[in-house]
Amino acid sequence: MFFTTGLADQYIQQNKEKVNPKHRLSYHLMPPVGWMNDPNGLIYFNDEYHVFYQFYPYDSVWGPMHWGHAVSKDLVNWKHMPVALSPDQENGCFSGGAVVYNDMLYLLYTSHFDSKEQVQVQSLAYSKDGVVFEKHQNNPILDAKDLPKHASKKDFRDPNPIEIDGKYFLLVGSKDDQNVGQILIYQTEDFVHYTYLNKIGPHPLFGDMAECPDLFELDGKHVLMVSSQHLPKDGNRYQNVNSCLYMVGDFNTTTGDFVIEFSEEIDLGHHFYAPQTLFDGKKRIMFSWMEMWGKPTLTHELSHHWSGSLTIPRILTLENNRLIQKPIDLSVHQKHIIHQQDFNSHQTFLNLEKQLRIRFKAEVNEELILRFEGNENDHVDIIIKDEKILFDASQNRLYPLNLRMTNQNYQGMIDLDVLLDTSSIEIFIQNGLETITSRVYFDVDLISVKLLGHA
Question: What integer pLDDT is reported at residue 236 of this predicted model?
Fold first, then answer.
């Protein structure tokens, strides 16, 4: 099959009405049809937020990767734009980042080739208007000859351009010849020509491949984010197939050294991967893919003609080396907002649409359950027990999941901000100190919310 952006746009227009809306989200970014995975090229350009994403319009499973594109003025209301990149010169346009340079929007991405063996190189596309993109005539801009010794030629992907202290760098995900993840750092002055500077790792916390690296300044520190493939479980940590970590430290812009001072998992839920951030001049904002490799995608299994979503945009701050995540303002989109005090006179709320928010802040000294219930014996629970916050979706009939819990201990005053959007739940704990993100599916259109216990 031959792929172009024009053919992709034509297919979307002809087939988007086939999408079954039953489990479609209300205030999250989803593909108009087909498959979505990693957020790419997050950027604020021409007074709009631009989100690109890994996209296969022709089926609701992963296929030859395109770059989908959406824009927003407020991070809530999204407009789908023409497809930005198609694999017309390669077998896939894999993940990458974006940068504004000389008043133009540059996209850095991985050109993926399947021949006798996998080949991955880095490529560039650019646009004057942020809508129509042209691939650079001298692609690739980085290939095997630009790799340091002992770096994999096969797994070399996810370029992310960054600016720190007025200097330009490109981070690229990598692994060494012992299958330990590392991040390669290249320096540039024009995002076309690059010089290898250094690497971060190889490091055991990067798993067997460091994907989707991001590095930025935040509240006086440098924060590195990485998606680590097949990171071994460590107690309650790293429960997913792949795990997402942040590392707080110091990045030396002269040598390319990064000194890690603190590291932790970004999200503790079942469906969170490949996060990337942007800076809009005031705040650092993060999106992530709200699915996970190795887990079933229910909307595909149900033949709904779409799969995948991004998390709600999250504003990031740093407090005592801890990454704090808070959702953007969603007040215009939540149809029901229930506060903790509302439960005092009404322990069960019936017949609620599945776009709602629970704001719970109370002194809790005994076990308490916040239950979201569809039909009888079909529910998911947020449990406060033994100084932990637990998420239990084992009784979700359509999509049962194993138990997840916080790494931190909590006692006394508990603060939860819970966002439910048709087929997703995002739990912000203690003002965003920890988060749990998972997909949940109810077969009914209206649900009940119950508080079991006393606060």
Answer: 93
